[in-house]
């Protein structure tokens, strides 16, 4: 098979012939139709993010494809099924505290590193081997839709957070980082789940206006000024009290911005942290102990999503509640992977998606309509 190889951080990605993966019990071999190129992939491959990713490796983070072969213990998946390959691989020998690695992308802790030694290579290739429990059927699609379906990889991140805090239909959610790639996905997902209102703070007025244009009056844009007192009051002026806050701010954002957003939540409210504050140094979030205790605030960290989130996300799409057509998709063949990484970095805004499409025909993976 042909594969993209990251030989060392800071070097251009290479295209090489690699052996086809061999599967065993508990594994599935998938023919990759499209794999998303994340907007910050250039930071990962350049080494700026300090991700745990031993080189050389075949990188990537999730894929849409078709099953080529299944292990002897698979009872439902069949060759030819269209599937989503979830990169969040969990160890199988500790149900209470499983170690986690993101296949082809990163790992958490020493246990994650150990898991990564086997689940090492990602989907920037013709074929990818994945654990059976990480391969989810999505139903029949046309081959040219594969790139658009890659959007669920982005949408699943905030969906995992919203499930973790139990967002209910009719509630008001504030998305900290609403103008970013994952934040805008959170807005779309929360509305699909029945949120009464999504408060969307940010400094980019064009993106805030676009969110309102796309989703209508259930989105309450708030332009941030940088003054914590003014910004906090503006966010709390949304319709009804803020029941929950989802933070998706990237590592370079100052913790005070996130703290201001978090502290808009009502008494008895819930907060879920999924961003990168502090990962590259800088101050901690430092939420006030008395405020947390006396207002009975629930704060939860969430990395990625549970397995149950994937069929739920597929259901939101299939029901028409969540429109993947919001995403404008730009496909690249494997041979142009470095151009794809550069494109993803330059066009990483809301509802934009760059994908790699092995052996694609012209236009394969293109979205049905531009957003």
Can you walk through the features of this model?
The model is unreliable at 360-371 (pLDDT under 50). The relative contact order is 0.16. Helix 4 crosses helix 5, helix 4 crosses helix 10 (309-318) and helix 7 (228-236) packs parallel to helix 8 (255-262). The chain folds into 2 domains: 2-140 and 327-356, Medium-chain alcohol dehydrogenases, catalytic domain (Quinone Oxidoreductase, Chain A, domain 1); 155-301, 3-Layer(aba) Sandwich (Rossmann fold), CATH 3.40.50.720. With 371 residues, it is of the alpha/beta class. The chain is globular. It has helices at 41-46, 109-116, 146-149, 151-164, 181-192, 205-215, 228-236, 255-262, 289-294, 309-318, 337-346; strands at residues 2-5, 14-17, 27-37, 63-70, 82-85, 88-90, 100-102, 106-107, 127-131, 135-137, 172-176, 197-202, 219-223, 244-247, 270-273, 298-301, 328-332, 352-356. The strands form 4 sheets. Strands 3, 4, 5, 9, 10, 17 and 18 form a 7-stranded mixed beta sheet that branches. The chain has a 6-stranded parallel beta sheet with strand order 13-12-11-14-15-16, sandwiched between helices. It has 11 helices and 18 strands. The protein starts with a strand and ends in a 15-residue tail after the last strand.
């Amino acid at each position: 098979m042909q594969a993209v190889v990251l030989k060392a951080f800071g070097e251009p990605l290479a295209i090489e012939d690699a052996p086809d993966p061999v599967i065993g019990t508990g594994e599935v071999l998938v023919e990759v139709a499209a794999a998303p190129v994340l907007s910050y992939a250039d930071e990962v491959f350049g080494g700026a993010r300090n991700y745990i990713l031993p080189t050389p490796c075949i990188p990537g983070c999730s894929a849409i494809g078709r099953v080529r072969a299944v292990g002897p213990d698979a009872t439902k998946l069949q060759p030819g099924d269209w599937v989503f390959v979830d990169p969040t691989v969990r160890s199988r020998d500790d149900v209470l505290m499983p170690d986690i690695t993101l296949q082809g992308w990163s790992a958490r802790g020493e246990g994650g590193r150990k898991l990564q030694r086997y689940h090492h290579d990602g989907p920037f290739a013709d074929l990818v081997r994945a654990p059976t429990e990480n391969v989810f059927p999505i139903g029949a699609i046309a081959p040219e839709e594969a790139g658009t379906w890659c959007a669920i990889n982005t949408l699943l991140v905030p969906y995992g957070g919203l499930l973790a805090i139990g967002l209910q239909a009719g509630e008001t959610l504030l998305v900290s980082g609403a103008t970013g790639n994952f934040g805008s996905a959170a807005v779309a997902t929360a509305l699909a789940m029945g949120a009464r209102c999504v408060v969307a703070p940010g400094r980019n007025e064009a993106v805030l206006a676009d969110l309102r244009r796309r989703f209508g009056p259930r989105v309450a844009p708030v332009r941030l000024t940088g003054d914590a007192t003014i910004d906090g009051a503006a966010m709390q002026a949304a319709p009804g009290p803020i029941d929950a806050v989802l933070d998706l701010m990237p590592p370079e954002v100052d913790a005070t911005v996130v703290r201001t957003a978090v502290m808009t939540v009502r008494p008895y409210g819930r907060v879920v942290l999924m961003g990168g504050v502090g990962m590259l140094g800088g101050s901690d979030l430092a939420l006030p102990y008395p405020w947390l205790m006396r207002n009975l605030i629930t704060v939860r960290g969430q990395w990625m999503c549970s397995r149950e989130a994937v069929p739920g996300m597929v259901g939101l799409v299939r029901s028409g509640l969540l429109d993947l057509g919001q995403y404008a998709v730009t496909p690249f063949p494997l041979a142009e992977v470095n151009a794809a990484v550069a494109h993803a970095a330059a066009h990483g805004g809301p509802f934009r998606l760059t994908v790699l499409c092995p052996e694609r025909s012209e236009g394969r993976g293109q979205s049905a309509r531009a957003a």
